[in-house]
Specification:
The complex is a heterodimer of chains A (about 450) and B (about 625).
Chain A (H helix, E strand, L loop, with lengths): L10 H7 L6 E7 L2 E7 L10 E5 L5 E5 L3 E9 L19 E6 L6 E3 L6 E3 L3 H7 L8 E6 L10 H16 L4 E5 L5 H11 E2 L5 E4 L12 H14 L5 E6 L7 E5 L3 E3 L8 E3 L6 E4 L2 E4 L14 E2 L7 E5 L7 H8 L4 E6 L10 H9 L3 E6 L12 H8 L3 E2 L5 H14 L3 H9 L23 H9 L3
Parallel strand pairs in A: 6-9, 6-10, 10-12, 12-13, 20-21, 21-22, 22-23
Antiparallel strand pairs in A: 1-2, 1-5, 2-3, 3-4, 7-8, 11-19, 13-14, 14-17, 15-16, 17-18
Helix pairs in contact in A: 3-4, 4-9, 6-7, 9-10
Chain B lengths: L8 H4 L10 H7 L2 E9 L21 E5 L13 H8 L3 E6 L19 H13 L3 E2 L2 E2 L2 E4 L9 E15 L2 E12 L3 E6 L2 E5 L6 E7 L6 H17 L10 E8 L6 E6 L5 H24 L12 E2 L10 H8 L3 E6 L10 E3 L2 E2 L1 H11 L8 E3 L9 H11 L7 E6 L1 H20 L4 E5 L5 E6 L6 E3 L6 E2 L2 H9 L5 H10 L4 H8 L4 H8 L9 H8 L10 H15 L21 H13 L7 H9 L8 H11 L1
Parallel strand pairs in B: 3-10, 13-20
Antiparallel strand pairs in B: 1-11, 1-12, 2-3, 4-7, 5-23, 6-7, 6-22, 7-8, 8-11, 9-10, 12-13, 14-15, 15-19, 16-17, 18-19, 20-21
Helix pairs in contact in B: 5-6, 8-10, 12-13, 14-15, 18-19
The chains are: A alpha/beta (about 450), B alpha+beta (about 625).
Chain lengths: ~450, ~625
């Protein structure tokens, strides 16, 4: 048995015939000519008929196995994709920062199995490639998980909360969590609820361009996040990602008000219905808000690592049928967060189902799919009727945040009155008293004054 | 001092200029050269997004800022170029125009699927060169940390390998043809700041790489011309300013492959190749001289000294100005380099420039002069200042000391770079990418990148090229320029017309016409002459093409061509005497509409003269009267 990673019949048979395992340096004779190169592993999602070789120029090409008449093996050379892992230098007097790795694009590289990127870097390799971190702090790293963020759920949230709690008790000066960006705002919300009254900054960070690209945002984000954790006096759960798409400054977003708003832009994270906590660049943190919780010298923190995952987030659409709600009741769900239209509405056919949910003791909360703005269920008759069916408005809590908070609340108690009390008592600005006018700034491109602004400022 | 006298005639004799060497001379130094010919494809869209291709502008709507960091290759190595570029710490600004740039070029969105029409064009041209087309296209990322691409890499893929083209009775091997994205246009590169326009970024182009089969500078230019002509013959490539660029690889026996980048005109090639051969010859002689003196990589140590204080009162204006701005000065002694920094490596260029170039590019100290040498023999510092510098660095008079100034960080980089270049001189010729300069010499651009900059593109899966697709393309191949030439000559077309028509788009129409049922009866020389007549519509617009199609049809129907020439006439048209021609010309001019432009006026004027008298002459008459 040799190593023919990823190859299937008929290409596999050809390789086996000539005992040409992956990483063999070969000359392949085909009926149209010769090809010299290194046999590479094959992605499992690619077809079974081609053999991939890396030519001396570094280019890869695929050859149809039917055409191959001979393979001569000249040697072997295996790829060793590994960033030199350097021991982090200790500098007396620098703050102590703990970096938790969970995976995601900030720590990803090529995977031969799928041909796409996978989370693979150890946090050690991360700072091996970003030596600037040594000027900021004394860094300790720990790999908690190695997954893309879509695979992070309540178990990981609980694991992270406990790990952070333990570090704080040990007297760390700041925490950085490397995380995939897709669900970073879910985890940020979960940590905002599970880790309360932290004496130090807890900074989540990721990247939109993987660290195997020269123009990746990973290094700058990591530097900004580490600087925040080490030096900032904002002792809250934050997301630290690019402000503009340019390599200019990062923004510190409150964990409960932040959301990923673009599938690929670097500047994808935005604070909704409020403004970010601060800006961060190589000169340090520049606060934009004043109402944050201050860093403290003690090691006290309140960890509430609980979650009931029998909660669902239902995105309402016109024509939704009651069976959606009924199936959740039938499957023993304990809580439902609805992302309703406008000020917080659903259609009339759902009323009976919502009534049944109420009867069954399912906690139902209303958020808005407009994302910006408050739920207001008095304005229209529909809202009042829904409240009559036990649907509770959640002010300006973001739908994903409400989902996380409801699971966390149900993890603490089954008493729906108690759950409602928890849901409606803001822990970390997930509900705010007021929405400032600049909490909603979606400027429309193409308009002269906007174009004038964008031509003068970094994007 | 005497022991360091330079006696090698290569270093002491005047440099032989281009034109003075014979084929034998190039053979003696062992010149070999290869080409990388880039040609933009005539596509509507860019290669990996749906932005329009070929629209350039001088204004922009927005700017973004990026930095680059080196990353590992697929094989786990850092590329030397990437590490060098990282030392330059460039702030890179991209100018964006809404019409021509989307989030893809900004590196804020993953690629879309490859433009299949552009891919077809690349396959087509690969087949024209007799290359083996790959069965499955794998897109790679080729690292470019010079800022010319916002991602820091170019998406590129091999389409064909191993073919050949004929050149003056011999065969030039084509190593590979790839399809790739074009880069940004550089607007400015000053100090640590670079500015690029992103409009050209992402346009599809093909790169044809030859083996180093060319043995003289002129042969390199001829090979380039053949490849260029082949590309153009397909009608699938863009032409005009900037649409074709080539990199020329040069080495001599004992030398190193040097890539001269971005040569836009084929005419420049021979002088550039010649001068690079001279440079390598000189650098090898310098290496031998250093080795003879016992100088090795290890023996060159950092004895640099900060001489900022020492030179604080200097009267040398470049330095005094810098000192006023609070800059620092470093003196780097180069023991063992006595008499060598002034030897010529290229016309008007001394060995010292190798050091100056590195300081300019890597340390970004780019205001010239950016370094001084104590042995340069031109008026810079006073002799007492040089004495102080020599004393501070602990060397005797005659031992070169280089002085470099700038901000602290840049001077540190510059000092290190001078030592790196000095050590390289003891080994031979460093592998470099060099820029072509207008005077035919070349200058350092960056360390030559290698296979270590390649990484598979994880954003797009490999694409299988089906045999149906390849067969379809193969069946539509046109003749290569050299096949066309043969056909034209066999048809009895004279050499001049045959040469011109074989590389002209209109050959396709020529072939359509001569392949008509009674095409063999045409006067082929006449037809070729007519097709190349500047007065007939060029096949650039749809309307012009239609004009020609109609002409073809007319001939097929046994009619006259629209422009009034009997093509089926076996006898050439009777040539007019100048006086007769002038008479017809005057008559035509008298009937001319005054509002017509010079170009537009040619047509009615030529009505009765076409094929019977020199068009060029008539044009000059017309210019006189208009």
């Amino acid at each position: 048995m040799g190593d023919y990673q990823g190859y299937r019949t008929p290409a596999l048979e050809v390789l086996e015939k000539y005992e040409a395992q992956i990483w063999s340096d070969v000359t392949i004779t085909t009926d149209s000519g010769n090809f010299d190169g290194l046999i590479l592993p094959r992605s499992e999602t690619a077809d079974e008929k081609h053999i991939v070789i890396k030519m001396i120029t570094g280019y890869n090409v695929g050859l149809l196995c039917d055409k191959i008449t001979d393979i001569k093996i000249n040697g072997r050379r295996e790829a060793n994709y590994k960033i030199p892992e350097k021991e982090f230098p200790y500098t007396e007097g620098q703050p102590r920062v703990k970096l938790f790795g969970t995976g995601g694009t900030i720590a990803s590289r090529l995977d031969y199995r799928t041909g796409a990127v996978i989370p693979a870097f150890s946090p050690g390799e991360l700072y091996g490639s970003v030596p600037e971190l040594a000027d900021i702090c004394n860094l300790e790293t720990e790999k908690l998980y190695g997954v893309f963020s879509e695979n992070i759920g309540h178990e990981e949230w609980i694991g992270l909360a406990n790990a952070i709690g333990a570090e704080i008790e040990k007297g760390v000066d700041g925490i950085v969590v490397g995380h995939g960006t897709d669900t970073m705002h879910h985890t940020a919300a979960a940590l905002s609820f599970m880790v309360q009254d932290s004496p130090v900054p807890i900074v989540m960070v990721g990247s939109q361009r993987s660290s195997d690209r020269p123009s990746s945002d990973a290094a700058i984000n990591l530097i900004n996040a580490t600087r925040t954790a080490a030096t900032s006096d904002i002792a809250e759960v934050m997301v630290c990602m690019f402000g503009p798409t340019s390599d200019q400054y990062g923004l510190l977003h409150r964990g409960t008000r932040v959301r990923k708003m673009h599938s690929s832009y670097r500047s994808t994270f935005r604070t909704l219905s409020d403004i970010p906590l601060a800006m961060i660049d190589k000169n340090g943190v520049k606060p934009l808000k004043q109402d944050y919780k201050m860093r403290r010298p003690d090691n006290n923190v309140k960890i509430t690592p609980v979650f009931d995952d029998r909660v669902s987030l239902v995105y309402y659409y016109p024509g939704m049928k009651p069976d959606i709600i009924d199936s959740l009741i039938a499957n023993d769900y304990k809580g439902i967060v609805i992302a309703g239209t406008g000020l917080g509405h659903v259609n009339r056919p759902l009323y009976d189902a919502l009534d049944r949910a109420n009867e069954a003791g399912v906690a139902v909360y209303m958020t808005v799919q407009t994302l910006w703005g408050f739920v207001q269920m008095y304005v229209y008759e529909t809202g009042r009727e829904l409240m009559g069916l036990g649907v509770v408005p959640t002010a300006n809590m973001l739908p994903e945040v409400a989902y996380v908070k409801l699971g966390w609340a149900l993890g603490q108690t089954d008493d729906l009155k108690e759950v409602e009390k928890i849901m409606l008592s803001p822990v970390s600005s997930e509900i705010t008293e007021r929405e400032p006018h600049n909490g909603y700034l979606l400027y429309q491109g193409g308009i002269p004054e906007v174009e004038e602004f964008t031509s003068r400022n970094w994007k | 001092m005497a022991k360091y006298a330079v006696t090698n005639p290569v270093l002491t004799d005047p440099l032989p200029i281009y034109g003075s060497w014979t084929e034998e001379d190039y053979k003696d130094v062992g010149l070999i050269s290869g080409l990388e010919v880039h040609q933009q494809l005539l596509s509507v869209r860019k290669l990996f997004c749906r932005c329009p291709a070929g629209i350039y502008s001088k204004v922009h709507d927005a700017e973004i800022l990026r930095h680059m960091r080196p990353t590992l290759s697929e094989m786990g190595d850092y590329d030397g170029t990437a590490l060098m570029e990282f030392k330059t710490r460039k702030e890179i600004t991209y100018l964006l125009k809404n019409e021509t740039v989307c989030t893809y070029e900004m590196d804020d969105a993953p690629p879309f699927e490859i433009d299949e029409l552009a891919l077809d064009s690349a396959i087509y041209i690969s087949m024209m060169m007799g290359l083996q087309v790959v069965d499955e296209v794998h897109i790679a990322r080729k690292q470019y940390l010079d800022g010319s691409i916002p991602t820091g890499f170019q998406r590129t893929a091999i389409i064909g390998v191993t073919g050949s083209i004929p050149l003056n009775g011999k065969s030039i091997a084509i190593r590979q043809l790839s399809i790739e994205e074009d880069s940004c246009r550089e607007v400015q590169d000053q100090g640590h700041d670079m500015i690029f326009r992103a409009d050209r970024l992402g346009m599809p182009l093909i790169e044809t790489v030859t083996d180093p089969d060319m043995k003289t500078p002129d042969e390199v230019a001829s090979a380039c011309e053949v490849i260029r002509q082949l590309n153009r013959a397909t009608g699938l490539v863009r032409t005009g300013c900037g649409a074709g660029r080539q990199d020329v690889n040069v080495s001599i026996t004992g030398g190193t492959r040097i890539e001269i980048k971005g040569v836009s005109s084929i005419k420049q090639i021979p002088v550039l190749v010649h001068n690079e051969a001279l440079r390598q010859r000189a650098l090898l002689a310098i290496r031998d001289e250093l080795q003879g003196r016992g100088i090795t990589e290890e023996s060159i140590v950092d004895n640099s000294v900060d001489v900022t204080e020492l030179l604080s009162g200097t009267g040398y204006k470049f330095l005094s100005k810098a000192l006023d701005k609070g800059m620092v000065v470093s003196a780097v002694p180069l023991s063992g380099f006595e008499g060598l920094l002034v030897v010529p490596t290229q016309p008007r260029t001394a060995f010292l420039k190798e050091f100056s170039d590195r300081v300019r590019v890597v340390a970004c100290i780019d205001r010239l002069p950016n370094l001084l040498s104590s042995t340069e023999g031109i008026e810079t510092l006073s002799s007492s200042e040089w004495e102080k510098v020599e004393k501070a660095t602990g060397v005797n008079h005659g031992t070169p000391v280089l002085i470099v100034w700038g901000n602290k960080r840049d001077v540190k980089t510059a000092t290190a770079e001078i030592l790196i270049r000095a050590r390289e001189a003891t080994v031979g010729i460093p592998e470099e990418t060099r820029q072509s300069l207008v005077d035919g010499t070349n200058g350092f651009e960056r360390i030559l990148p290698g296979a270590s900059r390649m990484y598979p593109d994880t954003d797009l899966p490999p694409e299988v090229l089906t045999s149906e697709r390849l067969d379809k393309i193969r069946s539509s191949l046109v003749l290569t320029p050299w096949q066309r030439l043969e056909l034209l000559k066999n048809d009895g077309v004279n050499d001049d017309l045959a040469n011109r028509l074989s590389i002209n788009q209109l050959f396709i129409l020529y072939k359509e016409l001569r392949d008509l049922p009674d095409g063999k009866n045409f006067n082929h020389n006449q037809l070729a002459s007519l097709l190349l007549d500047r007065d007939c519509p060029r096949p650039k617009s749809m309307a012009a093409l239609q004009w020609w199609r109609d002409a073809v049809k007319d001939v097929a129907d046994g009619k006259n061509l629209a422009c009034g020439i009997w093509l089926s006439d076996n006898e050439p048209l009777a040539q007019l005497e100048e006086a007769e021609a002038k008479e017809l010309f005057n008559k035509a001019v008298a009937e001319l509409d005054d509002s017509l432009s010079l170009q537009a006026a040619m047509r009615p004027v030529m009505e009765n003269l076409r094929g019977r008298f020199s068009g060029a002459k008539i044009q000059s008459w017309l210019q006189e009267v208009k």
